[in-house]
Specification:
It contains twelve helices and eight strands. With 321 residues, it is of the alpha/beta class. The protein has two domains: 198 residues, Vaccinia Virus protein VP39 (Rossmann fold); 60 residues. The protein has an eight-stranded mixed sheet with strand order 3-2-1-4-5-7-6-8, sandwiched between helices. Helix 1 packs across helix 2 and helix 10 runs antiparallel to helix 11.
């Protein structure tokens, strides 16, 4: 078995520090770090796609909110994700035009739309997702950009009877996205959304995420109404419990064991990296706090919504708990 030697690592680091070409490369990466945004090349999503081959990247929906993590299998997560998608598609009826899936993930919803006789169009700013979709679903058109940067908007005007945002609404810039959503929907069209929102302003944040009341105010300001609203927070929590269990009961102990072994086998290397390893551990802990089920329930709500233009014809508002 090949072993990592401290003196080899030290020589490698020193070589990168003293050679101009490596210094130039490091400076370039640092300078361009904001241009290479996570959303465009998300290795985490690529990993999820291998772990969850169903093509879904959302939390799923457990009919029994009391399901305990030790009783959940990967197959159960797959079923919960399919159930979540089924609930979304219960609100999609119009097949007179394509369905735009904004933030399409790895294409799970596009697959189900096609199976039900819809014509899906996938939109994602992520290169990995776009590449995966073009390979696995070549008949599905893929738009590779952020929704707010939709090219040739005139070509999309009033084109879509249904638009779906499944855990992608949180990333949209509302003042730009809401008018654009109005423009691309056919008259009387339906916007189906499912996502989580902060219920305490500024608390429980992360990348994206909207405050619930701020979001509702923005809808009203831009002429939208909510025709259907269902709080599914309790139904997504089993997935969070499952992820948290694996991370805390298996991931953290495995990492601690690896660090102890490194300290025993390569004490010099461990000493050099000690501060960095401490910072990594803190980052891991911060991310575990984000997926903590109790904190999620306290600070956020997860809602399925059906929205239409305020002047659109459609059913009256429903509410389901």
């Amino acid at each position: 078995m090949r072993k990592l030697k401290a003196n080899a690592v030290a020589r490698s680091i020193a070589g990168r520090l003293v050679q101009p070409r490596h210094l130039f490369r490091a400076a370039s990466l640092q300078r361009n770090r904001k241009q290479t945004k996570r959303v465009y090349d998300d290795a985490q999503l690529a990993l999820f796609a291998k772990i969850l081959p169903s093509g879904f990247l959302h939390y799923g929906f457990f009919d029994d909110p009391e399901t305990q993590p030790q009783d959940i299998s990967i197959a159960d997560v797959h079923r919960a994700q399919a159930r979540y998608a089924q609930l979304l598609l219960e609100h999609a009826h119009d097949r007179t035009g394509p369905v735009l899936d904004i933030g399409c993930g790895m294409g799970g919803l596009c697959t189900m739309l096609g199976e039900r006789g819809f014509a899906p169009v996938a939109l994602t700013p992520d290169r990995q997702q776009a590449k995966h979709l073009r390979r696995t679903q070549p008949d599905v058109p893929v738009i590779e950009c952020k929704f707010e940067n939709l090219p040739d908007v005139d070509a999309h005007a009033a084109r879509y009877p249904t638009v779906i945002t499944s855990e992608s609404l949180q990333y949209l810039k509302l003042d730009r996205a809401l008018p654009l959503m109005q423009r691309i929907l056919k008259p009387g069209g339906t916007w189906i959304a499912s996502d989580f929102f902060r219920i305490k302003p500024g608390i429980g944040g992360g990348t994206g995420q909207h405050d619930w009341e701020v979001f509702r105010d923005a809808l009203a300001r831009h002429g939208w109404r909510i025709d259907f609203e269902r709080d599914i927070t309790r139904n997504v929590v089993p997935t969070l419990r499952y992820i948290s269990m694996w991370a805390r009961d298996f991931g953290r102990p495995a990492m601690a064991f690896a660090l102890l072994k490194l300290r025993a086998k390569q004490p010099a290397l461990h000493y050099v990296l000690e501060d960095t390893l401490t910072m990594i551990d803190q980052v891991i802990e911060d991310n575990l706090q984000i997926i903590d089920p109790a904190a999620f329930v306290e600070n956020k709500k997860y809602v399925m919504l059906v929205m239409r233009r305020g002047d659109s014809l459609g059913p009256g508002r429903e509410s389901s708990d």
